[in-house]
Fold this protein.
Amino acid sequence: MSNRINKLYYCRHCGNEVSFVKDGGGKIICCGEEMIIKKEGFNSEE
Ligand SMILES: [Zn+2]
């Protein structure tokens, strides 16, 4: 099993959005504050 995650992070300050397909376990920081998770799901091979 090697499903890739698909997380979309959002910065409340500048509106920057970053999508990750691999979770490294670290926090995503933008504008000096932790980015919030806007969308979280899994990529499944269809
Ligand atoms: Zn930002």
About this structure: Strands lie at 4-10, 17-20, 29-30, 33-34, 36-43. The chain has one domain: 4-43.
